[in-house]
Specification:
The structure is a single chain. The chain has two domains: 154 residues, FAD/NAD(P)-binding domain (3-Layer(bba) Sandwich), CATH 3.50.50; 117 residues, FAD/NAD(P)-binding domain (3-Layer(bba) Sandwich). The protein is an alpha/beta fold. It is built from six helices and 17 strands.
Length: 278
């Protein structure tokens, strides 16, 4: 969105592909406190709403289709969507990340409707028992979000130490509806009888069967590079060097996945394109 707005300001007519809805993972954020301009912080959905309102004022074309593949031939990119093909001399890819799946835990297809990798689908749930696997910012942020909806949340950390911001850990520790366990892991999960799911959990070496409603996996994410994997590496590097192809946001920023960083990437990408053409 940031790149498209800046390109529009330069007089271009960018086309933005979005298979779901504008805003991406920011919709999951319980509270964004490091984005300037909002004293006291702002929720992810609220910040998304402001961004989308500003974006829509520029009347930028958005195609709500998933891009299936990207090709580069005769100095032109072609993006193959599920409905159409768009050709362009420049391409910006902000495809973000995909979630990591837990090792050693087999998730049967029959329980997959109750297993999630983002918190958004669960935000309308109330009075449910939810297990979260993870120990980073996302796991604790998700727990705080879900606990505010009268849900009972249990965080399972395979290791001894949490990896989230200390302030998130402190807030979760002071929330009665959130239980946090170290050296614990979910060994199996299957359809339950009295609840949605039944699982075997190992707590410090002791195995126990527990019932719960939903499983939320938050053990990290990895770059979603499937659109550029088919491009020859030498060609890809040359295109990036010439600013014809730009990777921005979480797809390239590793552990530095922040809205403010992604937005600056977008503005910079547009400026590089403008400079290249000039």
């Amino acid at each position: 969105m940031a790149a498209a707005i800046q390109l529009k300001r330069y007089g271009f007519e960018p086309v933005l592909f979005e298979k779901n809805k504008l805003g991406g993972l920011l919709w999951n954020a319980n509270l964004v406190e490091n984005y300037p301009g909002f004293p006291g912080g702002i929720t992810g959905p609220e910040l998304c709403s402001f961004m989308i309102k500003q974006f829509e004022s520029f009347e930028i074309e958005v195609l709500n289709v998933e891009v299936k593949s990207v090709e580069y031939q005769d100095q032109v990119f072609s993006a193959q969507g599920s409905k159409s093909i768009i050709e362009s001399e420049f391409m910006i890819i902000a495809s973000g990340t995909v979630p990591k799946h837990p090792e050693g835990l087999e998730i049967p297809e029959s329980v997959s409707p109750s297993v999630f990798y983002e918190v958004i689908p669960l935000l309308k749930m109330k009075d449910k028992k939810i297990i979260i696997i993870g120990a980073g910012d996302a796991a604790f942020d998700y727990a705080l979000n879900l606990s505010s909806h009268s849900n009972s949340v249990t965080i399972l950390n395979r290791g001894k130490y949490y990896k989230c911001l200390p302030l998130l850990f402190d807030r979760a520790s002071n929330t009665e509806a959130i239980k946090y366990h170290t050296c614990s892991r979910l060994l199996s999960v299957e359809n339950g009888t009295g609840s949605n799911l039944t699982g075997i959990v190992e707590w410090s070496g002791v195995k126990e069967e527990i019932d719960f409603d939903y499983l939320l996996v938050a053990i990290g994410r990895e770059p979603n590079t499937k659109l550029i994997d088919r491009l020859e590496e030498k060609t890809r590097m040359s295109l990036i060097e010439n600013n014809q192809l730009q990777l921005i946001g979480d797809i390239k920023n590793g552990e530095f996945r922040q809205a403010s960083i992604a937005i600056s990437d977008g503005v910079m990408a547009a400026m590089k394109i403008w400079k290249s053409i000039q």
